[in-house]
Amino acid sequence: MSRVWGEWSEHDAGDGWKYYYNEQTKESMWEMPIVVREALGAMEDLLKTALAFSGDWGAFDAGFGTIYYFHLPSATSSWQRPKEWGLQPELSYAEYALLHEKTPDPEPTPSNSTKSKPKPNTSKPQTKKEDKKKDSNEPMQENTPVEEETEEQKQEHFRKIEAFRGMLREKEIMPTFKWEAVLPRIAIDERFRAIPSMDERRAIFEYFIKHRKAEIAAQMKSNMKKAKKAWALLVEKTLQDMPLAEMSKKKWTLEQFRAYMTKVNIVDDATTAVLPLAIQESVYEKKRDAWYPKAMCRRLEYKRLVDLWNDHKQKVMDAEEYTDPAITKLRTQVDIEHLSAIDEEEIFTACQEEYRYHNYYLHRKDCCIRKDEAAAIERRAQERIEEAQRKETLAKQEALYQEMTAKREAEEKLEKDQAKNACQSQNRSSRQRSRSPSYQR
């Protein structure tokens, strides 16, 4: 049977949920009505659950992301945000209780709350800092700077904002979430209450949601990069530790490699769960192709020793020309019938030493060849430069020679013309003298 308090009655909604029904207004609600709370003496508990206080108003969570506002003097509630909200600084329950600690009853009544109720202000609404400066009823503001925030206060405020964002990350808030749906999950967190203003809380939330998608993408990219690096190291180590007997001439596929990892109990679900199969295969093939030539060299050297022992067992034990450390080890084991009794690691060590020497020799040879090639390239380049300089010098000399030849020919032609003109002038003078009367007598 449901309990009744005047017009209100309590009903069971199942799964431990209770709702309250008003017979007169036909209204039902999940939150315990004020009349019921007064009857149960739960007003103080109600005030403790407040999200914030501003003046004579308190903001409470009604569940399912809904907030209602309760007017303390008149004990009335409203779903709409009152116009008086924000005219006075927003306080937490601890600050509100400290401010009203002289009052024996934490529930203000209409008769004694008129003194603390703010008077209407016809001037421009004051800011929070100006209101803190003029409010003499708040002892918490005595040591707070009123002009502007100090650097320490700014850093502390930034720290609270970052803690609020960290809380949203811990709650796994996604970009598609809404403020009304998220509020019930975060309202009881201390990092939520550390932000003094409800508007600032919502502004931080909206900014977080706006950039959450890019943040998740960056985090996924970072996790993908770390997983790819871890997978590459795991593949490389597994290939290097693979026994000689497991090596095959045919390159393994990713499925065969995974089967071998399962066989030797090598599991890394945390890495493989993040990386797509295509990236796993790409990284594996790259590491496998780099490992394969060295592995085949090891396998062939091992097979050479096996064949040498199986085909020429007695000859190997008697001969002197076989100086390999592994053969020396085999020669000391006179009573051994099969190679399986020989420690594979000792044979591999001997093969590896020879392989390292051979690899070092090839490396030195390759370095010498590269040095010779580089020297030859440099020498040919120098020869080309010298040849170009020589051709340029010859071209300059040829141009100078042609210029001098042309100048000399021009001078010779000028001299010939002058001599010819002088001769013609002399002939004309002679003919004129021969024709004159004085010359005829």
TrEMBL record:
InterPro entries according to UniProt: FF_domain, FF_domain_sf, TCRG1-like, WW_dom, WW_dom_sf
Span of domain WW:
2-35, 51-84
Q: Give start-end positions of Low complexity composition bias.
A: 110-125, 424-441
Repeat listed as a keyword: yes
One function term, GO molecular function aspect: transcription coregulator activity
- Pfam family of the protein (one): FF
Q: Mark out the compositionally biased spans (Basic and acidic residues).
A: 127-137, 407-419
* PROSITE patterns per record: FF (PS51676), WW_DOMAIN_1 (PS01159), WW_DOMAIN_2 (PS50020)
Region: Disordered, residue numbers: 101-157, 407-441
Sorted keywords for this record are: Repeat
Locate the FF domain: which residues? 155-211
On whether Transport is a keyword of this UniProt record, the answer is: no
**Official protein name in the record:** WW domain-containing protein
Identify the species of origin: Thraustotheca clavata
